[in-house]
Structure formats: C-alpha cells, structure tokens
Amino acid sequence: MNIVKNLLKTVVPAPQRAHMHLSAALGTNSFNFGPRKWERHNKTIFPPEEGVTRPAYVCHIKKNIRYSPEKMWYVACLVRGMSVDEAVKQLSFVLKKGARDVKAAILEAQQLAVEKHNVEFRSNLWVAESFVGKGRYFKGVRRHARRRMGVVEYKHCHYFVRLEEGPPPEHYYPANLTPQEQLDKWLDKMRKRRITGSL
Length: 199
Prior knowledge:
It is extended, with a radius of gyration of 27 Å. Strand 2 and strand 3 form a beta hairpin. A 3-stranded antiparallel sheet has the order 1-3-2. The protein has 6 helices and 3 strands. Helix 4 (about 85-90) runs antiparallel to helix 5. It has helices at about 1-10, 25, 70-80, 85-90, 95-115, 180-190, and strands at about 55-65, 125-145, 150-165. It is about 30% helix and about 25% strand. It is of the alpha+beta class and about 200 residues long.
C-alpha cells in the first residue's frame, strides 16, 4: 500500500508541445539584417553650391512587415506626392492591414526628420518616394483531404519612404500629353529612323 501512495505522490511532467520558432529568422540577432542601403542616404554629405538651396530629406524603412508586397503596393502608391499630414489623414481611413504599418513608418520618418535632420516644422514635409520591397517568404504546409498537402507561403515585405522638406508638387506624376503633342512626338520618332548600316 505504501508503494502505491509513493507512486501517486510523484508528479509526472506534462509533455512539451513543439512550437514553430521564427524569431531567429526575422530577429536582429541573426544574420538577416534586411535592406541596409536605403538608410545610408541619410548620411550623404553634399558639397556646398553657390545659389543652390537643397531641401532637407530623410529616408526611412520599416522591415519585415507580415504582409504581402503585392497588397502593400496599392497603399504605397496612394500616399506618393502628398503632404505628411494629408497622407496620415488618408491612411487613417484605408481599410487595409498594410495601411497601419505605412502610417507608422511615415510618422517615424517625420519624427526622425525633426530630431536628427534639422527640419524646423514637422508639417512642412511631403512624401517624395514610397515603394515596397519583397521580404522573406516562409513556406508552410496545409493539409487537404486524402493525405494530400498544399503549400502555404507566409509573406513579408519592406516598406521604403523618403520625406522631403517643402510644399508638395501640384502634379506628382507627369501630366498626360495632349493628342497634338502625342502626334508630334510620334512624327519626331518616325523622322529620326535610319536604315541600319546606311550612310
């Protein structure tokens, strides 16, 4: 009877569950630093030029966002050419998960411009560049019927932004040519043709 009591007193530890561990692949303590060239533009020193006033700018990046780069592209295109306040206002109403990360990146870049790049007024900035880069893709497995497997991709992306001091331009993208300008451009191209090997 004593043997049974002693056996009941011993506590059997619960089996440990295996967890998927991705922090080594995406963390800063591994060799995966992500893109590093974009932020080096902040350290560029331009030679002084007489009569040229160069507007201040700041480059910022948000790395390893757990979102598809194809979906993030739409959000990145939306804010190009807007002032910072207008971009933050527009992104507050965009019902996409990536809009939250883009808004955070723009606000971080704005804070960086004021603190480290001698920008006097935080509202006097506009989004000069906004684009997305492909990050790490992890492959997983999804079970299907009849012992079949499907491949699942866990996508990550990097968001790049460059804020520039001053008012935003009236037209960020070049204006469309009028029909007459299109015709003149085409005629000019046709008249410049030459036969290969001729004099």
